[in-house]
Design a protein that fits this description.
Number of domains: 2
Bound molecules: benzoic acid
Shape: elongated
CATH superfamily of the largest domain: Glutaredoxin
Structural class: alpha+beta
Distance between the termini: 38 Å
Number of helices: 7
Radius of gyration: 19 Å
Helix content: 25-40%
Order of helices and strands: EEHEHHEHEHEEHEEHEE
Length: 210
């Protein structure tokens, strides 16, 4: 059965490019991003892992640990990482899980047989400190993901975990946010001292509260 938002992200042990890990121990008390790619030595995946490597400090500043996974063995990952570092001008510092027996792929339903019987699709999960699944996205092999968008969602998730707000379309860090419908305008004025702009009774903006 596939995972849904709010489900507990399953734990696992796996061989990775930084050694054997326990997923939960690796995440610790922080946030996590687990993302699959179809196979090593493929062009789009090379750019995706390179981009993730370049954004490593952005993920770290959000207390977020990143792990990639594919069904290739770890020796192949080690060799491929040299190519990623060379061609994408980066240093891959996050673990790449070797999943030849598909333990992780099956736990996270990353193989979609109508797409490919053998390879994982581009699945991405954001996992909160409570180990619950906060975001699931699935892209086809032919389309590389936008990791700046992943950071944007992470910002939204981390903000909305602490304040009674939601983020509007195309929101970016620092822009106004929306007061959630469950909070009355009277309470919103007390909760958000930076001010509440009531456009409609159901559409109320406030400056980013943190
Ligand atoms: C790629 O990562 O480049 C790729 C993988 C499978 C199919 C198409 C592209």
């Amino acid at each position: 059965m596939s995972l849904r938002l709010g489900d507990i992200a399953p734990n696992f042990r796996a061989v990775t490019t930084i050694g054997e890990i326990d997923f939960y121990e690796y995440l610790g008390e922080g946030w996590g991003i687990l993302f699959s790619h179809p196979a090593d030595y493929t062009p789009v995946c090379t750019t995706e892992l390179g981009m993730t490597a370049k954004l490593q400090s952005e993920f770290a500043s959000r207390n977020t640990r990143v792990l990639a996974v594919s069904v290739d063995p770890v020796d192949k990952h080690f060799e491929w990482v040299k190519d990623i570092n060379e061609t994408q001008q980066c240093t891959v510092g996050f673990p790449i899980i070797a999943d030849p027996d598909r333990t992780v792929a099956d736990l996270y339903d990353m193989i979609h047989p109508n797409s490919s019987e053998n390879f994982t699709v581009r699945s991405l999960f954001i996992i909160g400190p409570d180990k619950k699944v906060k975001l699931i996205i699935t892209y086809p092999a032919s389309t590389g993901r936008n990791f700046v968008e992943v950071l944007r969602v992470l910002d939204s998730l981390q903000l909305t975990a602490h304040y009674s707000v939601a983020t509007p379309a195309n929101w970016k860090q620092g822009e106004d946010v929306i007061v959630v419908p469950a909070v009355s305008t009277e309470d919103a004025v007390k909760k958000f001292p930076k001010g509440v702009n009531v456009v409609k009774p159901y559409l109320r903006y406030t400056p980013q509260p943190d």
